[in-house]
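Title: Prediction job returns without error message
Component: structure pipeline
Severity: low
Priority: P3
Assignee: unassigned

Description:
Job completed but the reporter wants confirmation the result is attached to the right record. Sequence as submitted:
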Amino acid sequence: MTRIRFISADGGQEAIVESKPGDRLLDVAQAHGMPLEGTCEGAMACSTCHVYLVGGDVEALPPPAEEEEDMLDFAACANRQSRLACQIKLTADIQTLDVKMPRSVVDMSR
């Protein structure tokens, strides 16, 4: 199991959830009420599931593919920690993951 900590843009609110290997980060986020759209259904046609990976076992994730890096160019406030949640598949090597919502996501209670 992977423990995922979702952190609001201001660093205040957070939710801690668990997921199993094989889950996509976007699906876990949506299942727990995190406000990530993922409107392209993983087809790499948008950047509405942009998040920042700020801690945990980030080094256990494969680097973003070139297509993901291209889509991140369209994400507001993207930086070196930016990833698309639809492209992150959790594995047994990832015990913890800290995920911060971008400033464009404000309401974590939806």
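Comment from assignee: result matches the submitted record. The chain has a mean pLDDT of 86.
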